[in-house]
Specification:
2 copies of one chain form a homodimer.
Chain A (H helix, E strand, L loop, with lengths): L39 H16 L3 H11 L9 H16 L3 E10 L2 E9 L5 E2 L24 E2 L4 E5 L1 E3 L5 H9 L8 E5 L7 H8 L4 E5 L2 H4 L21 E2 L37 E4 L1 H9 L27 E8 L2 E11 L4 E11 L7 H23 L6 E8 L2 H4 L1 H9 L1 H7 E7 L5 E7 L4 H9 L10 H14 L5 H12 L14 H7 L3 E9 L14 H7 L5 H19 L7 H35 L1 H5 L21 H26 L6 H12 L22 E3 L7 E3 L1 H8 L3 H30 L1
Parallel strand pairs in A: 4-9, 6-7, 7-8, 8-10, 13-14, 13-15, 15-17
Antiparallel strand pairs in A: 1-12, 2-3, 2-11, 5-11, 12-14, 16-17, 18-19
Helix pairs in contact in A: 1-17, 2-8, 8-17, 10-15, 12-17, 13-14, 18-20, 18-22, 20-23, 21-23, 22-23
Chain lengths: 768, 768
């Protein structure tokens, strides 16, 4: 589900270590560095282990598995979805893993009847289907392919005028209001992009719309980006992006079992009471089907930034003719099949290193999710071989291939909820991948893992340039920061890259299976994938996400599949075998300082913007610039801003900074000495360290959404995929809920103080 | 010729004076101020005169004149062009002016044969014509309408592959080179926008292209901006932008008589020796004709910013099939008819206030130039009535309606060159208009006029809002500066606007008839026009620039025509009747300081960018980020930057600042005393003041283009319309000609010292 083009690229980087082949003539700005968590002796053993692991990765494996697993529709409930799970189970077992399938029965609606037509003088009936295209073998398969739909939208039959609402995000409704356009009772036509899909019908519903359509404009992922499939990789006229519109900002997983696993005996909500299911009908459509609707729109010309690439003038509406939209679903229960494979740790079996990727798709899913899934399988095969050769991880490895990610992160969420207690007791790290492509590594995650990630990508070669993955990222940041219109953050990143420091990894929002681990259970997590040079956006969640597309426009020789196995595999192997867990809390503390700084800047900026808006309203400036032939009303007056008390956060961050510096120093001293300590103390130390991320959670969760318990990272209520850091405070400020901002500044500070106290205990143990 | 959408909007502003109707509820931030150049007593007389002038302006006049003058094609050499001149001559005389027509015979090529076709498997023959459209009466006229062409392109017959070069500007060729695309021997397909039209074929020629096409992309002025004509005002599929491609950055006017008037006895160059005529054929085309060529392009996908709004993927080429381009012109001499009308000044007949607008168009020219021309006529009629009622201007008025502006500012240039000596002796101010529309005033000019312009627009009501023209501009600047992505200059302007200070007027580049006055002769000039709410770009230089279009999408009730007459008329009347010429040199000095500051910033920025580029080249970063499937070569290495000596300019600007402050103070003291002084001294003072702008010229002119003599304002060699201030220095720096930059910093400083010495003489006279 993860990869979408408008999502900001979140980076991490480093440079050549001694094991990576050097890119000719490029000076090395970073001296090689002992891997975090290892002493001088174990570091050598580990380098040898990783070299053996690398040698066991064969791109031909990934190609063969991808072809087989994407050969038939494999969405939840399909025969091939189950077959893929069983195939993996057999493979894992053959590779020496202790594997099983864990099944959950969950609500999974599928379309019974969908329809869309334009009435009036130029009637049009939408095709709502994706034809076969030349050269794409699986596109001819019709058996078992569901029609394009948005799962968890409401049932409904609506005949109404159409209004165009751009990306359908909150600011778009403000612009419509300023132009006197009311969406109540209308069908809102939105385009993909600008924020998470599910927010579009949700916000349409909140604004009183009767229905919602979401189309793919060629500006965003079609011919305006590059040649359309099959000439190029971009979305053809009839391509449709399916996807979930479950209100996952409240909670992901089975809508009927919030917070608990969908086991046979779980208490289930009635469908009508499930708060994450929408009430209005919603349908995703192609631009071929959207064009007649757009042409039928009257009213003002849409603002500049709202216009797509279709050969017409975009108007806001309402339409001169009405449209008729029908969505009727089968509201069935379906099984999801999670494949779980374990190798028990030799000396710390109760510390688990978890690695996951989902296997269910919307149709064939060669890119999403199978490209990531076959990288995970390759790691598991190589690890199995290492075990057969006599190696055993210190800590326990858990490899998982989730089902039901596409409808709502269901397989991972139900498993995490079912095993919450064990996981909170044992899990140290969760490493996620999803789709994979060609180009640059995208890495996001818990910042205590930032240094390890930087070190790992210093030692993995980029297949195209033979520089390290980190060095290539560094070059990209430097080039971006040198662009004439580079933003201050881009310039700062470029400077960091040029100076050879660790590059920041992004924070996790949502959109893939790490959510339950990180945000519900408080397990330090990472999400990894290559991209930026491939053309995946154009087939995202369509019937054309196929093997044939992937080997032309994705990663033709699976070199980046192998690179992903290396990056994720090295992370897993280091986490598994480090003398002490490879976490550096100073990186978290410094990142937190940045977030707190951002909150202060946000308050200052909003205060200035509020004063400016009030001044402009009072002076009548908005009325003076409005063209009477195209009137735009003044914006609604923003509420006054009182003082906001971020001081508790400032103090907590300062205290944490001192403690984190002390930890980093004590850890480094211990590392130089090979972490020599009694096994029991090391176990205790590891247990405390593994639990650190949980110390960033709060049982009551975030305001209005108790499922999300992490007080530093959460998907934004109004961004969906996009992260909001320090969410209790940030979203309160952005939403102008001033009392809540003050309250959550104090609450978050309290959580951080608990985190610090635990960290001080660890530091004391290291100092012993 | 002036109005083009991609030209930056240059603003000036002020607020309500006591005479303007107040916009309800808007607080007045600027106290009324005595008009510059007037004493306490004459200020009252002047206010009464302006009120009488305003009452004589009738929008019905402008409507009737516009309809008649745009009723038939009126390009140079057409019967209706001559008829319009004769009609105006009769009008001016009837209104009491001393008027005549001055005729020049100039080179004016017209198409004999033009053709464009795509060869190969999908052949296409370009239409190269604009059909009639419903509701546009003159669009059915075919008699006397020339086919769309670019005047002063070369003759040629070329069959070659096509390459797409975006706007065809210098940076575009760098991008092509990085992608391995060579234009030598090819037909370069460019789109309108991004810089002056004439640079496109000139740069194509310099890069070795065999021919050049320029098309209008709907992204820039068609359906992507708004509904196409006749539904809306924007360019239809077959609309073509005609226009000159004469190399006017060398010199405008008749290509055969550089620097001298095209009188019968003038020495004329041979056509082949005229340096402003291109050698390769060039043709402007519609997007309907460009689409088959764009579809035929192979090669890489064009960079993001190069893609237009057509429903296709833009490629760079070369094309898979060749195109065949033919242009063959009649290289004839044609007469241009300048209408010149005068009213002799009562007390200072040797000081001339000149007001001009052209009357020739490309086809019917309702917008360009007639909307401005009828405002000028309305002023002349009202002034004639005032004279009949007994008023006489102190100084002499010259009203001119130029011919031949479209092919190359010919009528104004030849007249200015012919009368250079008289003009340099007598002319004090030149006030230009061209087209006119609806919305906000655009004002550019000599900065010694800035305060007068600010005061004038304080006293003219905006027709739509009943605020003053200045107040409306101020509101717009404040809103723009409050936008989330406002640039630092936008924020500074917003602050200035909110504080109620004078707003800066823009500097003049080229593109209308002020060029010869300001840049060749050194006469302080202004260019004025309303726009921003009208839809003129879509019919610019096409057959659809018609009366019917203008009254739907321009200024339907000619309220802005009357507002333009008021703004220009008040400026003329104040310049004519002020006790002493209304110039404030402190405004020029402060503006110069800004320009010198910009030069320092330019040097610093280029130095940083050069170092950055060298570092990125040395580290191999460009190679590391290049996608091997879409390779982009590293850019060419920029030359090293030595120290650049701007100190002479700094010192000259500092000295001038002191002198200008002394002048402003002395002038203000004299104004409070009603400028009481003997008539002869006042004449001498005025003569010195009128000549101040000439003190900014240098007989040798700018590097490589001696016709352009002003050392502060010039059109950019590589922008065409767009101004380059302190051009000798700025263009040398931008072109990395370091020695030339040093040399022209000293030369410009020398000119500024002469300007200052003259200013000191004036100040001494005021202090007497």
């Amino acid at each position: 589900m993860t990869r979408i083009t408008w999502r900001p690229l979140l980076l991490t980087a480093a440079l050549l270590s001694s094991t990576a082949p050097a890119w000719a003539g490029v000076p090395d700005r970073r001296p090689p560095d002992r891997p975090l968590g290892f002493g001088p002796a174990t570091a050598i053993t580990q380098a040898q282990l990783e070299a053996r692991f690398d040698a066991l990765l064969d791109p031909a494996d990934q190609r063969a598995w991808l072809k087989q697993m994407s050969s038939a529709p494999n969405q939840v409930g399909s025969p091939h979805d189950k077959a893929n799970a069983e195939f993996m189970l057999a493979q894992f077992r053959a590779w020496g893993w202790d594997a099983h399938i864990e099944t959950f029965n969950v609500l999974y609606p599928t379309p019974e009847r969908i329809g869309l037509s334009l009435l009036g003088p130029h009637p049009y009936t939408a095709k709502l289907s994706e034809p076969a295209v030349a050269g794409d073998a699986t596109s001819t398969i019709r058996d078992g392919v569901l029609p394009p739909y948005n799962v968890y939208g409401g049932d409904g039959d609506v005949t109404a005028e159409v209004v165009y609402a751009n990306y359908g995000m909150p600011d778009d409704y403000k612009e419509l209001a300023r132009r006197g356009i009311d969406v109540r009772g209308k069908i809102v036509l939105t385009r993909y992009g600008g924020g998470w899909r599910g927010l579009k019908p949700k916000l349409a519903q909140e604004h009183g719309a009767a229905g919602c359509l979401i189309y793919s404009d060629p500006r965003d992922d079609g011919f305006a980006r590059g040649d359309a499939y099959p000439d190029g990789g971009w979305r053809p006229a009839d391509g449709v992006q399916r996807g979930s519109v479950q209100d996952m900002q409240l909670y992901p997983g089975d809508p009927l079992t919030p917070g608990v696993g969908s086991t046979p005996d779980a208490r289930r909500l009635a469908i009508k009471d499930a708060p994450t299911i929408l009430h209005i009908p919603v349908l995703p459509i192609s631009y071929a089907d959207a064009t007649p609707l757009l042409r039928a729109l009257g009213g003002p010309v849409a603002p500049d930034a709202w216009r797509g690439a279709l050969g017409l003038t975009y108007h806001l509406g309402p339409s001169t003719a009405k449209a008729h939209l029908t969505v009727q679903s089968h509201w069935n229960q379906q099984p999801v099949y999670d494949v779980i494979a374990m190798i028990r740790g030799a000396s710390e079996p109760d510390r688990w290193i978890i690695r996951g990727n989902h296997h269910d798709a919307w149709v064939f899913g060669a890119w999403d999710p199978l490209a990531g899934n076959v990288a995970l399988m390759a790691e598991a095969k190589a690890i199995g071989t290492l075990v057969k050769q006599g190696w055993r991880p210190r800590r326990t490895l858990v490899y998982a291939s989730w089902d039901g990610e596409e409808p709502g992160l269901i397989g991972s969420t139900e498993w995490a909820e079912t095993h919450a207690r064990e996981l909170q007791a044992h899990a140290a790290i969760y490493v996620n991948t999803d789709t994979n492509g060609r180009g640059f590594l995208e890495a996001e995650g818990s910042h205590s893992l930032q240094h390890m990630v930087n070190q790992v990508i210093d030692g993995v070669a980029d297949p195209e340039t033979r520089a390290s993955v980190g060095q290539r990222l560094r070059a990209r940041l430097e080039i971006a920061g040198a662009a004439p219109h580079a933003t201050p953050p881009e310039k700062a990143d470029a400077q960091l890259a040029a100076a050879g420091g660790d590059l920041p990894i992004g924070a996790l929002g949502s959109g893939s299976d790490y959510s339950a681990f990180l945000e519900h259970l408080g397990i330090a997590s990472l999400n990894l994938g290559f991209g930026g040079e491939d053309d995946d956006a154009g087939i995202y969640h369509s019937r054309y996400d196929s093997f044939d597309h992937y080997v032309r426009f994705g990663d033709p020789d699976f070199a980046y599949g192998v690179a992903l196995s290396r990056v994720a595999g090295h992370i897993v192997l280091r986490a598994a075998d480090a003398d002490v867990l490879p976490l550096r809390f100073g990186d978290f503390s410094r990142t937190l300082d940045r977030y707190v700084g951002e909150l202060h800047a946000l308050v200052a900026d909003m205060r200035k913007a509020t004063a400016r808006q009030h001044r402009l309203l009072d002076s009548g400036a908005f009325a003076l610039v409005s063209d009477p032939t195209r009137p735009v009303r003044p914006p609604a007056r923003e509420s006054d801003m009182p003082a906001i008390d971020l001081a508790p956060l400032d103090r907590a961050a300062r205290r944490l900074a001192r403690s984190a510096r002390a930890f980093d120093a004590a850890y480094a001293r211990r590392a130089a000495g090979g972490f020599a300590m009694p096994a029991a103390r090391r176990d205790e130390l590891d247990a405390l360290m593994a639990g650190m991320e949980q110390a960033l959670t709060r049982p009551q969760g975030l305001p209005g959404r108790p499922w999300f318990k992490h007080v530093i990272y959460a998907p934004g209520m109004l961004t969906g995929y996009g992260v909001k850091t320090v969410p209790g405070v940030r979203e309160a400020i952005e939403g102008r809920r001033w009392d809540e901002a003050d309250r959550y500044a104090a609450i978050t500070a309290g959580v951080l103080d608990g985190y610090r106290a635990r960290l001080d205990r660890i530091t004391a143990m290291l100092a012993q």
